[in-house]
Backbone:
């Protein structure tokens, strides 16, 4: 695990975007694993700017998002598909048919999860996965648990996650309680992973995930075992290391 500390969120965004752009330059048909939430926004902005300047070409790139809320459709204002469209897909020259987000309206959730894992496999596996981490240590919607999840599955949001995500909804009651999420096993299969964390409020969980025991009680701690994990922190998130 390589840990880099940056001045602020924008500096991390530039640095993480450079890692993703380098991946696409080296392999135009790259398969990228993407995330939602506040954490990737600076990276997505930087990638959109690089694409507009002609420095990176997403024409052949294929993406798989970590998760989607169950019960929300693609055009729902709070869906992660919509988030990705607004914050990245529309701003870069990627083919919409190459952008994969689990279908939160699938009638058969188990079948949707299996199909998602199959699609990742058929695409050749994820080359580079972007990750943020939740205050409870979750990655994707893999919440603290008794064991590490394997493939894509139906995940139950923890109380802490519902509270953290209510800022996007009118009230906590509107936050979906379940999601389709890639598993810890899916994430660990990615050939390389970039974990981005910023802010004082994530300093404690960052220290527990990066330097504490590897345990499903802190799902992000599994990344200590990933052979190619780059961690990008601002000074505040790194303050308890
Ligand atoms: P955030 O969420 O980027 O909105 O802080 C991170 C996460 O929950 O994984």
Residues:
């Amino acid at each position: 695990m390589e840990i880099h500390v940056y001045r602020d969120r924008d500096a991390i965004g530039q640095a993480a975007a450079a890692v993703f752009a380098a991946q696409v330059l080296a392999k135009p048909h790259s398969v990228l694993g993407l995330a939602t939430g506040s954490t990737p926004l600076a990276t997505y902005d930087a990638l959109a700017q690089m694409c507009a300047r002609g420095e990176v070409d997403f024409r052949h790139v294929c993406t798989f998002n970590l998760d989607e809320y169950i019960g929300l459709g693609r055009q729902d204002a709070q869906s992660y598909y919509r988030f990705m469209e607004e914050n990245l897909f529309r701003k870069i020259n990627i083919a919409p048919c190459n952008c994969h987000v689990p279908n939160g309206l699938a009638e058969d959730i188990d079948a949707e999860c299996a199909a998602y894992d199959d699609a990742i496999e058929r695409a050749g596996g994820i080359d580079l996965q972007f990750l943020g981490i939740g205050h409870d240590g979750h990655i994707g919607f893999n919440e603290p648990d008794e064991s590490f999840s394997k493939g894509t599955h139906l995940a139950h949001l923890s109380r802490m996650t519902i509270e953290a995500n209510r800022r996007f909804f009118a009230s906590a009651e509107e936050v979906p309680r379940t999601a389709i999420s890639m598993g810890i096993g899916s994430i660990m299969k990615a050939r390389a992973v970039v974990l981005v964390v910023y802010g004082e409020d994530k300093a404690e969980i960052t220290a527990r995930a990066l330097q504490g025991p590897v345990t499903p009680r802190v799902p992000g701690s599994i990344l200590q075992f990933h052979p190619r994990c780059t961690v990008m922190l601002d000074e505040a998130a790194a303050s308890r290391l």
The mean pLDDT is 97.
